[in-house]
Design brief:
Layout (H helix, E strand, L loop, with lengths): L32 H7 L13 E4 L15 H13 L1 E12 L5 E9 L5 H25 L7 E5 L10 E8 L10 E9 L3 E10 L5 H16 L3
Antiparallel strand pairs: 1-2, 2-3, 3-7, 4-5, 5-6, 6-7
Helix pairs in contact: 2-3
Length: about 230
Amino acid sequence: MTWGRRRRAGGPVDARSPRRRSGPAGEAPWWDRADQELAERPLLVAGDFGRGWTDVAMPNNAEQLDPLGDDPDSEAVRHARAERRLTALDEGRAWRQRTVGSLAVVRLEVFADADEVGHRAAWRDHAEASLGGTWRARWTERDLRPGWIEARWVEPDTRQEPLIDWLRIEDHTDHTDAGRVTVYEHFTIWAGRPHVTLIVRHDLDVETNDVGVAVAATILTRLTTPA
């Protein structure tokens, strides 16, 4: 899968598809048809995650055009995103590890502008606080009180591509008596116009680093290698 450079003003990026994408019913068209068709092509299969992973349906998953919270750090990232202009979105493809229950979800966005320098700079400056604020906002939206939540950068190792950013979110929100702590491995894949977020959710005592690093690298390769 390959993606072109920024399109000229007045070109195809301004054409709106007459068909509804596979998003919320009744959604007013905003997307570019060609970009949306590419975004909805399968990017991964269960085998990419390794043994024991399987595709899972997420019928109740609601796509969010704005994936960020309402805190000041998220607003800074939001402003940088808006400069690039979103032209396509596909969210909600998921895979589960049958034995331990870990879950991986992919969000693929396409922007009109391939120049991601400003966007990535804002992300690097604000990602930790933005992710913490976003996670707390999502719990609040569900009328649940968030517990202690912290996002931290993970230092890259020799396996990690320079176009992949990795943060780890530790979430102590648990509205049961189990005392469960959930960890989210948050990977951002920077590939020009296509922009992918891979989140691998797992319990604190489950190790998934190898899976996340490998799958993020696979995504980057498929987005940047000519078909």
